[in-house]
Design goal:
The chain is of the alpha/beta class. It has one domain: NAD(P)-binding Rossmann-like Domain (Rossmann fold, 3-Layer(aba) Sandwich). The chain contains eleven helices and eight strands. The longest helix is centred in the middle third of the chain and has 16 residues. 50% of the residues are buried.
Length: 321
């Protein structure tokens, strides 16, 4: 059975860093993939896993740039991959399956945020396509390697942004409704959480978890915001400097990567899956109309919605064979 959505007393907290979480872990012999691993919290996730002995593969749209960013971190390989390109996803998975016997950790960390409507080559709204559909297809293609790990974890980096919207199953790609970037982002982050409801993987020993990393304004996700918008968000001061206050969800990248790493390696989570986490802890459920800053909304943990999303995602990611 999937694990209950309730805190477990992890001993960590909002100010915990990825280095704090990984201390004492030995990942020698483990293979990890971290999408979006060449920027923001992805770099810190890669650094932590590699420091514990894991071999980490980072798929990247710009492999040369990624290699430059990650050059100082040992045990890291970079491969080309664009989450908006189904053929590139299939090619990456084919190369991986030919080279590696098993995949122990799949960290679906890569993300996109667009303030105006952007579509991929298929006509899909780009936030939904990159944040969810690309990772859905990648996970499906890598499934044989996850099975061979005999205890793999799939980690979906969601966000408290899921509070803003559930998945609109009638119009997920904004073909009939007006585009709202925050609704689109919220939909994609809800999809990340629903995808980690792991009823399909649990019988095979593949467990999935989703998480909110925290509010971090120094990542690429914030690159399209104007200085005025960033100041209005409350996450930067009048001089444009990031405000760091983890108890109020304002984190450094090192703190932001901590929950991802905790979900990936914590022994406390052995045998658990289908849960949404934050601040290195299992998040509490909150009501649909709650104004709480954190917690997980009911539309992100509903197994019937997860099944609908799975079926929709299969239809939208069918590629020619």
């Amino acid at each position: 059975m999937s694990s209950p959505q309730a805190p477990i007393g992890s001993g960590f907290g909002a100010a915990t860093t990825a280095a704090d979480v990984i201390r004492g872990h030995d990942l020698s012999g483990r293979v990890a993939i971290v999408t979006g691993g060449s920027s923001g919290i992805g770099v810190e996730t890669v650094r932590a896993l590699a420091s514990a002995g894991a071999r980490v593969i980072v798929p990247a749209r710009d492999p040369d740039k990624a290699r430059g960013t990650l050059a100082a971190i040992p045990n890291v390989a970079v491969e080309p991959l664009d989450l908006l390109d189904p053929s590139a996803i299939d090619a990456f998975a084919k190369r991986f399956l030919a080279a590696e016997p098993a995949l122990h950790l799949l960290i679906n960390n890569g993300g996109a945020l667009h303030l105006s409507l952007v579509r991929d080559a298929r006509g899909y709204e780009a936030q939904f396509a990159a944040n969810h559909l690309g990772h859905f297809q990648l996970t499906a293609r890598l499934w044989p390697a996850l099975l061979r790990a005999h205890g793999a974890r799939v980690i979906a980096v969601s966000s408290r942004g899921h509070h803003y919207a559930g998945v609109d199953f009638d119009d997920p790609n904004f073909e009939r409704r007006p585009y709202d970037w925050l609704v689109a982002y919220g939909q994609s982050k809800t999809a990340n959480a629903l995808f980690a409801l792991d009823r399909r993987g649990e019988p095979h020993g593949v467990r999935a978890l989703s998480l909110h990393p925290g509010g971090i304004v120094t990542t690429n996700l914030a690159r399209d915001f104007t200085p005025e918008q960033l100041r209005a968000s409350g996450y930067v001061d009048d001089a444009g400097r990031p405000i760091i206050d983890p108890e109020r969800n304002m984190k450094t990248v090192e703190q932001g990567a901590a929950t991802t790493v905790w979900c990936a390696v914590s022994l406390q989570l052995d045998g658990m899956g289908g849960i949404y986490c934050e601040d290195c802890e299992v998040a509490k459920p909150v009501a649909a109309d709650s104004t709480d800053l954190l917690g997980v909304k009911p539309w992100a943990t509903d197994p019937d919605l997860a099944e609908r999303l799975w079926n929709l995602s299969e239809r939208l990611t069918v590629t020619p064979r």
